[in-house]
Amino acid sequence: MTVLAFLDGTLADPGAAHLRVDDLGLMRGDGVFETILVTGGTARELRPHLDRLARSAAMLDLPEPDDEAWQRATRLVIDNWRGSPEFAIKLVYTRGVEGDPSATPTAFALGLEISERVVRARADGVAAVTLDRGIDPGLGERAPWLLLGAKSLSYAVNMAAGREAARRGADDVVFTATDGSVLEGPTSTVIIARERTLYTPPATIGILPGTTQAAVFRGAERAGWTTKIEPLTLDDLHGADGVFLASSVRKLTRVHTLDGKTLPDSTPLHRELAEAYETVYA
Amino acid sequence: MTVLAFLDGTLADPGAAHLRVDDLGLMRGDGVFETILVTGGTARELRPHLDRLARSAAMLDLPEPDDEAWQRATRLVIDNWRGSPEFAIKLVYTRGVEGDPSATPTAFALGLEISERVVRARADGVAAVTLDRGIDPGLGERAPWLLLGAKSLSYAVNMAAGREAARRGADDVVFTATDGSVLEGPTSTVIIARERTLYTPPATIGILPGTTQAAVFRGAERAGWTTKIEPLTLDDLHGADGVFLASSVRKLTRVHTLDGKTLPDSTPLHRELAEAYETVYA
């Protein structure tokens, strides 16, 4: 099941061709996106997702997204969805056609089934490997043209990291900075639990601020947890009671193995935190 | 004038829609490309361009490009071109549609007019600024998953760098590594001239091997120049007799100003080297 809605409020056949070959989203990976989880007819964290879309667009000097139009397109996909009760909506916003001075951005919302692989990872956890991202934690603020922390369509490296993980027999990746600090996953935020406190690295080190991570923190705080945003090292991960990857579609996924080393069993902890996260939407 | 040929040998209307929204080239910047200059009906450096396309594809774990089919598509664009005698052909090769196990790559060749801006820069030269790329020169070999030196469709950063240059009142960019060494332009190779020797940095520092740079070197060698591939510093650029940016469409473009500082006038040198480059195709 797939549902496609353009920002002008029209539904279209997702199996048909809709884009010119010279769309800058294709030619240059020049655009931004968001992936939103829908459960029970509600788009989770829609406000933070739309805020982040606007933030990414500003970092790429794209026209400010039409917030209401994006809300309508999201609603249109939800209203026309006939697939699984839990699904994902991708919002895609590109610079439009190359060399056209009057070019309007290409903008659509696409409802998609969540892959079997992600559903399985939610239940079983994942083996992750750390991969050098080659940047230092000060770079994002020093060099905004590198678009660190923008959710751009230029995700070839994020995809290549996933293939490198598979080559190493793992399911997912934790990127590290040149000083050894923990950054993020290619499509997720890193969270660790230690003595009833949750930790995640600050977005200022050049990573994406996590919408799901923020929701997990809200739920955990309600359940009596302390939450802290501070730099993490690999030692912190190996010494934690639980290591998790958070994203819209994977929710909170447990990392059971890191770089081939089995981590302490965080199954009960994961269950508790996953429940705390769900209370945010109860 | 624009001419579009798909890899299966069909011509198509470049103004029409041809791509699904879930093409991974769009969704993830997950594909590779080449830009080739055509003059007098000949695609310059076609062999090196196709070799580099194959190299980039291998770095992204894409299926090996069908070399003959790409040659045919390129020829088809040239044969149907009715625009300016000098034009560009982009070859684009993506992973195809997301989630489709039998997905075939999306592959097309697009003939395009060369922009006024590029033609003007060839004649007048450009002001460039240096921008921190945030990587060290050993990273490319250490971390192949970062795809340094692959010509991927994920060019959002390259485009953002160009906008940063414009904000600083300049036309183009020279990226530098964390140790101060010179990398490349966002869409060009850096060449300097000093005492009848041409220098360019080695591709091993995580940059794209330049097809036009190689052709310029061949032409210059025939004209009695020495050529060297070795690391360059910003001091080398400021102390050079001439600094140039090479790419298929800009050919050899002279940098007249670097970070606001006027460089020594390299107009005669540029004329000599541009002529030497043209002899390669005479």
Automatic annotation (TrEMBL), chains A, B:
<dbReference type="GO" id="GO:0016829">
    <property type="term" value="F:lyase activity"/>
</dbReference>
<dbReference type="InterPro" id="IPR043131">
    <property type="entry name" value="BCAT-like_N"/>
</dbReference>
<dbReference type="InterPro" id="IPR036038">
    <property type="entry name" value="Aminotransferase-like"/>
</dbReference>
<dbReference type="Pfam" id="PF01063">
    <property type="entry name" value="Aminotran_4"/>
</dbReference>
<dbReference type="InterPro" id="IPR043132">
    <property type="entry name" value="BCAT-like_C"/>
</dbReference>
<comment type="similarity">
    <text>Belongs to the class-IV pyridoxal-phosphate-dependent aminotransferase family.</text>
</comment>
<keyword id="KW-0456">Lyase</keyword>
<dbReference type="GO" id="GO:0005829">
    <property type="term" value="C:cytosol"/>
</dbReference>
<dbReference type="InterPro" id="IPR050571">
    <property type="entry name" value="Class-IV_PLP-Dep_Aminotrnsfr"/>
</dbReference>
<dbReference type="InterPro" id="IPR001544">
    <property type="entry name" value="Aminotrans_IV"/>
</dbReference>
<dbReference type="GO" id="GO:0046394">
    <property type="term" value="P:carboxylic acid biosynthetic process"/>
</dbReference>
<protein>
    <submittedName>
        <fullName>4-amino-4-deoxychorismate lyase</fullName>
    </submittedName>
</protein>
